[in-house]
Amino acid sequence: MLAAILGTYGASVYWREGLSLSHYDAKAHLVVARRILDSIAPSWEQIGAVWLPLPHVLNALPVQIDWMYRTGASAIAISIASFAITVACISAIVRASNGTRTGAILAAALFALNPNVLYLQSTPMTEPLLFALSSLVVLYLTQWAMADDLKIRKAVGWTIVLACLTRYEAWPIVGVAMALAAIVKWRRGPQQARIAQTHSHGLDVAREIAKLAMYPALTVLFFMGMSYASTGAWFVTGGFYVPDPTLQGQLGAVWEAIRSGVVSLAGSTLTDAAEMCAALLLLFAVTRQKWSVMVMPIALLASIALPIYAFHSGHPFRIRYEVPLILGAAACVGTAVSMLRLAAPVAALPLLFFVVQEAPPFNRASPVI
To answer: pTM to 2 decimals?
Structure first.
């Protein structure tokens, strides 16, 4: 509820300043949604094949109203709702990962107060919907990994479908989250009273994950079929940008550029803390069975796969592609700080202070703006 209030206020700030549709992609997303039913050749093929379809399908009917189309109001409302869901999910992920209330609040605050996140949730951009659905997927899989029941609910699969139809960053997040959840579930097996044999438990976990994997696999095949039907190409990887040789084929330079981008977006304090906390969570998850679930927030950092692939392939550097990493960084830091238990507030308060000082909310100089 607090996140929804903050998001609505943030959207009003940028609305009054005339920045809601400043990004060319913000206008383009509205155009794609509108042209599905209102264009020279109205058709589902107007959805296109470069951007994933869900955000445009959600807005296809609202933007037929001229005011909604020219202001992006309906898409902004979806972004605000997505922002609120994300904040709720990120705190729930920390709690589900054996985290404390302090760690959950810290993770939510680190994400929600970032000026670039606040700006994107005030626009028709597709990142907020990605944040909501991918964090919901990780939350569902974390809860499954900690539950005694082996069966995965269908709601998890359909949430994965929606995430995979929103932005490409969701694809690696879903894959890593499924793999980590399976490992955590398998490692917890011997502790469950109703499991007789570790070997059979491992096979049961593998079967459940294999069934769940059908959801993203069929979703990707569906999108590729739609792409071929509308463009004649199974998967469009070029033609929509001019290759930039600055980072092309240079993995080391790509990594440094991405890290520098995160520092610009969130500050060096959060970036350094996230690197240390992710390594710490991985270490404790491997060495201590009862804390293995603490590895789950790392799945949100898998969004780094997209900028690595894009920049390595010659796509021009885009600072916006690093924003999803703030979500993973906040979740990892909140979970790691929770390990301090009663002493967690002692670390959380100064950490939050320094992060907000380096990247204050509504900062007009924030990189995305």
So the answer is: 0.94
